[in-house]
Specification:
The chain has 8 helices and no strands. It has 153 residues and is mostly helical.
Length: 153
């Protein structure tokens, strides 16, 4: 790291670092879920005789919905592990599910039909959606509340 970058990093407040860290953790959980849950889902669909190409072309609703689920579940699990209560965990889940519902509406109305385009829209819109959820509950994500490493009941 350059001296300038190190100096800039040292001027970031701890609460801002915590906020950025949480956002990064959500991204890791989101993309990790695509691998950890997506691969077994693909194998299961293959066992049912549905190829990846068929999933994209013949079952776009299933593809888009499944993508939303495999990214949301690990995010919520990670938040619970990190000690967040159900309310912010559900809000974060909604920040993922709402873009999924929006692309499904685009698909069903015929406004956008290309599955690749819909997947890009779904993923790109999820990023600011998560950020908005975090900004609306800033204290939750800047460390101004106490939560342990493990979820509380």
């Amino acid at each position: 790291m350059s001296a300038v970058a190190a100096r800039a990093a040292s001027t970031i407040k701890p609460s801002t670092r915590q906020f950025i860290r949480h956002y990064a953790e959500m991204l890791v959980a989101m993309f990790g879920g695509m691998i950890v849950l997506g691969l077994p889902a693909g194998v299961a669909l293959g066992a049912l005789g549905i190829s990846s190409s068929e999933l994209h072309n013949d079952y776009p609703t299933l593809m888009l919905s499944g993508m939303g689920v495999v990214m949301t579940v690990p995010m919520v699990a990670w938040m619970r592990y990190r000690g967040h209560t159900w309310r912010p965990s559900i809000e974060m889940a909604l920040s993922m599910i709402l873009p999924t519902l929006a692309v499904l509406a685009l698909l069903w109305t015929g406004a956008v039909t290309g599955i690749g385009t819909l997947l890009v829209i779904e993923h790109v819109v999820m990023l600011p959606s998560m950020l908005v959820a975090m900004l609306l509950r800033r204290d939750e994500y800047t460390g101004h509340h106490h939560h342990g490493h493990h979820a509380t009941a």
